[in-house]
Amino acid sequence: MAATLADGRVVISWTDESNILGTNHETRAQLLDPRLAGVTVTGTAGADKYVGSAFADVLKGEGGDDALRGGAGDDTLDGGSGADSMEGGTGNDTYVVDNAGDTVIEQAGEGTDTVKASIAYTLGANVENLTLMEPAAIAASGNVDATGNSLANTLTGNS
Predict the structure, then answer these.
(1) CB burial class (10 A; 0-12, 13-18, 19+) of residue 70?
(2) Distance between CA 32 and CA 38 in Å, rounded?
């Protein structure tokens, strides 16, 4: 749940059912101030939905099937281990892809964007760059393929 305060700050609250502290449910909250700078939000094991600000935000979804939307800044979107939907918006955005079900959404003219993948990945429309993660991140899956799209791509492998 999110609420915008009169001064522009945002309060985000959620229920954590991870049972870490021995309770069935915990309500957590975080106060964000998107008026001055980007925000960093780390989600839960559930299906999180986060929208960034006009600045450079870092949105991390963790374990569930998350929906992350960056906004106008140079954002970093990392949905975690679930099958996530990530949309950067304008700015030079970075996406972390680690699940074949992850979806990256970009529109034409919205900056120079990069996917960092630890799985075989083919760039979707309007994403310019693909970087394979360090060897330790892909050791379990063996060889990983990187495939570009119709743009002038930069594909960076690992060694």
Answers:
(1) buried
(2) 9
Walking along the chain (159 residues) 10 residues at a time, the average pLDDT comes out as 75 67 62 77 86 90 90 93 94 94 95 92 93 68 77 78
In the DSSP assignment, the letter for residue 37 is S
- Residue 39 near residue 52, CB atoms below 8 Å: yes
- How far apart CA 7 and CA 5 sit, in angstroms, is 5
Contacts of 138 by beta carbon, 8 Å cutoff, 6+ apart? 118, 119, 132, 144, 158
State pTM to two decimals: 0.76
Q: Report the distance separating Cα 128 and Cα 149, nearest Å.
A: 8
